[in-house]
Amino acid sequence: MRFIISLLVNGLLVYLAAEILPGVAVAGYMEAILVALLLGIVNFFIRPILTILTLPITILTLGLFLLVINGAMVLLVDGLLDGFSVDGLLWAIIFAIILAIFNMITGGLIKDKKE
């Protein structure tokens, strides 16, 4: 149940971020949920590999290159979905930053129930 709620909240956050940023567009709320799902999958499987492969440049930039990796993940999802478009790497990085901020704000609202 927590996964479904988290997915719906992230879909809403994707939709809101796309409404705020002029360089990002989502066709509708269902596409926003798909974007949230695909971003989660891509971040789970591909981001760790890219992070390890780019570790030297990440260290040299004191971690700022991770923003580029996050933007690349957004562009990858953009290439996979027709209802989601990003106008370039800069907008993808800004979108990823806004999404991370939104997730930090709403992260406290979705808590695990400890039994």
Structural features, described:
The protein is built from 6 helices and 2 strands. It is mainly alpha-helical. It has one domain (2-107). The longest helix is centred in the N-terminal third of the chain and has 19 residues, at 2-20. The radius of gyration is 14 Å and the shape is globular. 23% of the residues are buried. The mean pLDDT is 92.
Strand order of the largest sheet: 1-2
Order of helical and strand elements: HEHHHHEH
Rounded radius of gyration (Å)? 14 Å
Biggest pleated-sheet summary: 2 strands, antiparallel
Secondary structure category: mainly alpha
Let me know the average pLDDT: 92
Record field, number of beta strands: 2
Strand content: 5-15%
